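FYI - complex with zinc ion, inputs then prediction.
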Amino acid sequence: MIDCDMHRRVLRAGALAVVAFSWLASTVWSDETRRIAFSFDDAPRGNGPLLSGSERTKTLISGMARAGIDGAAFFVLTQSINQQGGGVARLRAYEEAGHMLANHTHTHPWLRHTDPAAYLADIDRATEILDGFDNVVPYFRYPYLDEGDTRDKRLAVVAGLEARGLQNAYVTVDTYDWYMQALVNEAVEAGHRMDMDRLRDVYVDVLVETIEFYDALAVETLGRHPDHVLLLHENDLAALFVEDLARVLRKDGWDIIPVAEAYADAVAGERPDTQFNGQGRIASIAHAGGASPRELVSPWEDETNLRAEFLANGLLPEEESSQ
Ligand SMILES: [Zn+2]
């Protein structure tokens, strides 16, 4: 009996040690190995204010190579392939650099403004065009992250995607990188001289803070750091500063992983029953769990805040500040 009791005590101490060790390991693991993948919507976009389309593709590919970003995904708007000079060559360049192409519809419709049949037909048109490329993965990224304004519509498209073998290429980090690019377009059109170092710092800081916002929301909602998918657009800012963004993320303890690896996360199997999808999958899960929408949007997903930040950093013409 004594032996047996002692044995039990030893076992219990052993079990406690295991629990303590796994708690410690999970703390260390979660703090040191947060992971994020990069995705770029609306490729191939036309000429920007700072780079032509083909310059942008070259700059983005070389920036990602220097930053060690592999297996990024480009969500292709297929109607742009012929509208933009060299569209096919640019998409081939992304493939040849080891990145993936995927479906973002042919004409970029809002699901809320169309019906499921027309929407799925637009997706099919994009699929046919993408068939001509080599490194295409069966992912679908909803334009505007709009998965439908009614439950019936949402479920009809979900069923349509499943029938086509397409996976919802959700994001976990929604960003307003497109609005920062719009502010740059506005400044350059007004003849404003851009301080490129300032622009880089604002772009990187805003995105890093947005990533931290959604990671904190994930920890609160899921109790862990999931593998994240970052939403960016194929724009001038991404091409010029992707390397700087990656450097800061690495310094903060992030690993950058291929998109396919991020989509192996358990979050991919979640089916939050909500029409609140515009801020990405983590926010949808939190909303389906009862969180209020206003807690689920980063302060940097706000045009007023971003414009004020650009003005404060001299990235817009002075006269704008009197408005
Ligand atoms: Zn888009």
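The first strand starts at residue 34 and ends at 43. The mean pLDDT is 91.
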